[in-house]
Amino acid sequence: MSDQIVAGTRLIRRLEQSAEIAGCTMDVVSIDSRDLSCSIFVIANHRLIVAVGGLSARAWLEALDEYSIHVPGHVLAQLAVGAIDDTGEQLLVEIEAQTVKEA
User: Fold this and answer.
1) pLDDT at residue 39, as a whole number
2) Cβ neighbours of 29 (radius 10 Å)
3) What is the tens place of the pLDDT at every residue in 28-61?
4) Alpha-carbon distance 16 to 26, whole Å?
5) pLDDT of residue 37
6) Judging by DSSP bridges, how do beta strands 74-86 and 43-53 pair with one another?
7) Does the pLDDT at position 7 exceed 90?
8) Cβ distance 100 to 41 under 8 Å?
9) Mean pLDDT throughout 77-93?
10) d(Cα 81, Cα 100) in Å, to the nearest integer?
């Protein structure tokens, strides 16, 4: 399994755990992970579309950043919440993140 897939899978698990702790749900609609590695670092960009539900969904999204999530074996260098579409029952959210594999 490639490093960006491992990082993306671990990122999703940690986001799901964080959402559950915050009292909301998160389901992945799509993920696109791209390798940006160079000779020194193993880097991946991740773009997720997720469906977030629950009364605390907006509060969780507002608090979400690269310091609030730990991805085992990787440094979460950047995490940003992008477009949010309120469908009435849930929020459809774009999340972009960048991971760097720990040495």
Assistant:
1) 84
2) 11
3) 999 999 998 888 889 999 999 999 999 999 999 9
4) 6
5) 84
6) unpaired
7) yes
8) yes
9) 95
10) 19
pLDDT, averaged across the chain = 94
Task: Count other Cβ atoms within 10 Å, centred on residue 97.
Answer: 24
Q: What sign does the dihedral 68-72-77-80 (CA atoms) show?
A: negative
Residue count (the chain): 103
In DSSP terms, which residues pair with 101 in a beta bridge? 74
Give the count of alpha carbons within 13 A of 93, CB side only: 23
CA atoms within 13 Å, Cβ hemisphere of 5: 2
Annotated domain spans of the chain: 3-101
pTM exceeds 0.85: yes
Secondary structure tally for the chain: helices H, strands E: 2, 4
Report CA Rg, the chain.
Answer: 13
Q: Which CATH number fits domain 3-101: 3.40.640.10, 3.30.2000.30, 2.40.50.320, 2.60.120.260?
A: 3.30.2000.30
